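tool_log.txt
---
The assistant was asked to compare two proteins side by side. It first ran the structure predictor on the initial sequence, then on the second. Raw inputs and outputs are pasted verbatim so the downstream comparison step can read them without reformatting.
(1)
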Amino acid sequence: MLAAWVEQLLGYASGALKAIRDNEHYPALMIWARDEGVVRVGGDLSLAQALAPLLWNETPLVRLGFDPEPLAWPGRNEPCWCDSGRKTKQCCGAVTLPGAVPPHLMWMLSLKEWTGETLKAALGSGKAPDQALLEAGLIAAESGQRGRAQQILESLFSSERDWSRLPEQAEPAFEILVDLYQSRGFHRKRAALLDEVLERGPTFLRGVALERLCLMHLDSDDLASAREAFVRAQQTLPDSPTLAYIESMLLLHEGHPEEARARAHFWWRRLSKRSDLESDQLQFLADLAANPEATLAEQMINSEEDLAEPLAALAALLDTLEAPPRLHLSRTPEGHVEYHATAREDTAFAAWFEYFKVTIDEEAALSFESDPWENAGEWLPALCAHPEWLGSPSVMQSLSLALTSRFGSLPWMAESFFEPLAARFEAWLSQLETQQGPFAWDDANNATLLRCALALIVGMERGARTRSRHLAERVLKLDEEDDLGLRELVLDQLLREGRDDEAAELSGAHDEEEMIGVTMARVLALYRLERCDEADEMLTVAQRANPYLVPMLCDEKPKPVALAVDAPAPGTRAEAWQYRQLMRDQWMATPGAMAWLDTHR
């Protein structure tokens, strides 16, 4: 009954608003109510007449600067305000409405209708009720009107409004606005909104802002800032179920799967005692406690909307693949090993490319000419229907790169996608190793296999660190020139595992042109091994290569640097910022290291 009334009221109010906008004077509305409005309430003339003045009183009028022009409520024995000529007690005063009329309804419908300068002026007036802004913004977002949604929600969260009056339903609106800023590239606006919410927002919004901040830092690999934001969120909203989800992700990013499982179990025990959680929330917490990686992977796959089913099918397929066909290899007179694609492999790749349609950028290590996920609804089902295509290294290369571009930063996706592909690739790698010769990037079709290896190494770097390092070490032995820059990645993982002697040895063949990550890996390894004179000498080399590096590492909160898609230029603040994000946690975890660095500013 209530749902029917809401639908009837919306239909009537929308028609009434159109009649008002045509004239913006009350008599015109009453003419509409008797002639057309009555049809929208099932022919009930009394109801049509009673509704019209109620809606008129709450309608913002453009001619009055968005103020309403309310009528005075008549006394029982006074003439009814619907202009029927009868007393109020015998007319609208005798009508019982089927349900309530929200006081913000006409503002909300007006915000849906207005465009251009009128909408801008209405929002700028500051007179729109919070609930009207909230509902109009959500409706615009759900209907794909991103620009309108952003404009309306920005008004809701304007610094000039009293945020203490915000309804708790404002939480999804806040998250939508943050997402709109992210998807539309308004990163400064996003940062400013989060800062303002953290400074003066209501408690429930501060907690959400901190949670989002934590996730943003995870996306950019700034684990120290992510941990700090999580701790603040925990202090602000200690009983938020979202914290269980975020802490599991944070611990997995930090490389602590067992602790992630233990903490997820703690959250499940704690929150399962609450009566206000829905059964699906409790089940998610229970699954998280049992297996954080698998639960987060399943959630990620299912959150992909149209791609959920084909992604699940791909994960199931990869788990059952047999060993791949052998490669066609040859040797050059200099003893180099070369891979040559066969006609069978070329045919498989041609069939795959009819669906995939995206070309790899041959000038880059890990990128495409365009986004392969825009047509993933075509190539994912096609690949699942033709698993034999994966016998072609070119298909493996495309698939590995595509998966890394979307899921490579998520530790919990390694088991579903990257480890099965790595097991398949390692069969080819073993075949290469038996040839006992250098395997150079520029020879024959070698780049296809090396690029595939790099994609898998990066994809497993967070979720299967040991396997990622072992694969990188094997490829590094084949590719003596280190065309892929794997030495830096292997050093990173050796330092994280505390294998400082091996890190010092691997980084030992140093020259002035070495990547800053390799140089600093040697500095840290030497410092940990208490070879201080050598560490001093190498740090001088690093500072000469990038003078921003040590200050960026030592400062508690340096100004962030936006990183481009390509690798930052050597010697720049961007390079120093990237190194800080990747490795500051290892310097912080090394006793005395930060103080030692600080003396070298």
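(2)
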Amino acid sequence: MSTTNESWGSRVGLILAMAGNAVGLGNFLRFPVQAVQNGGGAFILPYLICFVLMGIPLLFVEWSLGRFGGKLGNHSTPYILDSVSKKPIWKYIGVFGIFTNIAVVAYYTYIESWTFIYVFHSIVGTFTGMGKEEISGFFDQYVGLSGSDFGIPMLPVLVYVLVMGLNIYILSSGLGGIEKVAKIGMPLLILFGAILAFRGWTMGTDYASAEFPDANAWDGINFLWTPQYSSLADPKVWLAAAGQIFFTLSVGMGSIQCYASYVRENEDIALNSITAGFTNEMVEIVLGSAIVIPIAAGFLGLDWVLENAGFGMAFQTMPYLFQQWGPVFSMVAGVCWFGLLFFAGITSSLAMGTPWMGFMQDEFGWGKVKGAISFGIVALAMGLPTVLFYQYGYFEEYDYWGGTVSLVIFALLETILFAWIFGMDRGWEEITRGADIRVPRFYRGIMKYVTPALLLLVLVGALFTPLGNDWNAALDSLMAGQGYELDPASLISKISHADLKAQLLSNPAESELVEKKIFYSTLARMQLVLLFVMIAGIVWYSHQKRQSQTL
């Protein structure tokens, strides 16, 4: 086992890097959509409760595990978890903490590359004079590799490789490079967000039109911030809120543990984790909710937003809306919006490289450059198919299995390890050692009972999602002694491609496309399994190497 003297240069740099890890594309792309699809104000209250009962405890768990493993010379989850329990299984559960980062960065960097090229399009005025349908089609052509490429063949692939290369270059300078990017990127992100949020909050009814006479930005704001207490009894909203916590805090991935493993033994982690968590929440709730939905409602009306809210709005709708502000401010807004998304993306994707690099440094003595390049090669091998076969579902498979299911499984298992095997007495001592704040003692009980129960509910909810995500009807049916029909999007249904097979039955005219999706989805899953097995094999080999060195 190799040791490293690398550590964070300053507390501010660490907190900004941790906040940058958490503040990602989900804050600005996923959060507003989840809020709209789950009733606006009906979503916010369960979301905030989930942050207190699940988000903060998971931050405590991951910071504590990271610092504990780091003082023993371990900087990635296989051996961080192994240092907590010597049962061999935990090393291989720790594989999730490397696997998830590579699986996610593979497609996440592709989204980063969209934001990167869209900054350029905003500057050169590509969208000037385009209609709403044209701009929407522009994005479809780009990801479909069928146009929007300045006549350069396979431009999306080239931009993807360029952005991945930028990540690798920064990673090759270690924690210092990540810290510099965080110190520049996070303030710029907040500045760009503040400009757009101010514009969204001050639009009012100024842009109502004959086509959309009811357009009013304040309708979007009121929809998000008018509490609806009835949602507290809706399991669907709770599951959506809990799911968003994973996306927004980057928990269940292994990158937080890796960052925390470079914290000095008696350095505060309680205040650091809460500061990073609340910085993320402030950005998400104050800025994330004040840009896409109010601006779209200010031009198109709340009804249009409720019908059309989706991930693609950021790239297919926002550039059109910015054009309505005139040539100068539309360019400023485009640079702010896509620049904000780029900085949100790269501060998160940099964190995803550190567990692999920490592991290869610890176990094989690899330097920063070798670690970064090897990470880039593996990430590119995983990621290029998500670019080439985007329209066939490769991207979605990585996002679902690598970026959703894996996170919940790993978070549940590490919470059980921390609270029940490491034990809350030792765990609490680890959290509070060197703390600059007094951590409320009620979190002992929350971390031991409430957080694992919530995580288990999220996993069970994903496994057995009822048709139409109608949990109230499903629970009524179960109470009556009957079963219920699973939704095609439930985890169990997705394993057998029931969602795609349902599309095949409902739309036979698109059978060729759907059959290709089934084929490429299966291929994507095989690639993910091979990645997991490869990492587990490297962990096994490193363990044999450790044992031979101790003999």
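---
observation on (2): The radius of gyration is 23 Å. Residues 511-550 form the longest helix (40 residues).
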